[in-house]
User: What shape does this take?
Amino acid sequence: MKFINLRDGIIVAVIFLSALLFIFLCNFSSGDIAEISVGGEVVKTVSLNKDDSFFVGNVSFEVKDGEISATSSPCHDKICIKSGGIKNVGETIICLPERVSVRIVGKSESDSADIIVG
Amino acid sequence: MGLLLALTFALSAVETAVSAGLPAGVRIGLANIVVMLALLSMGKKEALTIVVAKSVFILITKGVTAFMLSLCGGVASFIAVLLLIKSEKNSLILISVAGALVHNIAQLIAASLILKNINTLFYAPVLIIAGVIAGSATGTVIKITLPAVKKAVNDNK
Assistant: This one.
């Protein structure tokens, strides 16, 4: 078996670049509404414009400077806490053992521009 | 076989330690190196045993959720590697990267099912990038270590 050949190199490069492109296309719009779900059901919707801290199940969350982050959780890996603060549309914080997930869903109706060009 | 199994457990533990410094959810797949080495040097049965044993090790050390994710990822990537390895045309890098990608994607789907929520799928691009990098790295390690492992397996027969 060969270590690498041209065809496979191209396949791998294309997969890599398309994922990279997807991230760049998706990650540049910040939102200010976070939706928190437990086991697939939305249990809480919070605005990121106001600093706040609260519990959902056993996981505590903090809203600060327009970002939401998980601050404590009883789970093993603390992946939710390591995710840090999120603020862009589509970004998520997930705590699998507690079945809690947070997702930034969009911007509230406000005076912001619809589209920023250039 | 026993040696490879022990190596898997050790690498699994090392990986947990190393992953602490990486972005959330990103793993290197060190233990997958051993699974592929087993598949290339011994056979399907031995490799599958290692996949399942690794998941059981995770069940003991990290709990049920992690076990389910590990098993889904492990078995799915095992099947992908098994299918790709049949053709001589496929290079080691392709097989290794495919194994890492399928591993990540299967875990992501399993996570979505547990959460009953598709939010997790937004994480796919990050895991795809991580999978390509990790797969290339593990492929290189396999290339370097395979001759020695093959020799050891033959000597013990």
Notes: The interface with chain B takes residues 1-5, 7-9, 11-12, 15-16, 19-20, 22-23, 26, 37, 39-40, 76-77, 79-80, 82-83, 90-92, 94, 96-97, 99, 101, 103 of chain A (CB under 8 Å). Chain A has two helices and seven strands. Residues 16 and 88 of chain A are 22 Å apart (CA to CA). The radius of gyration of chain A is 18 Å.
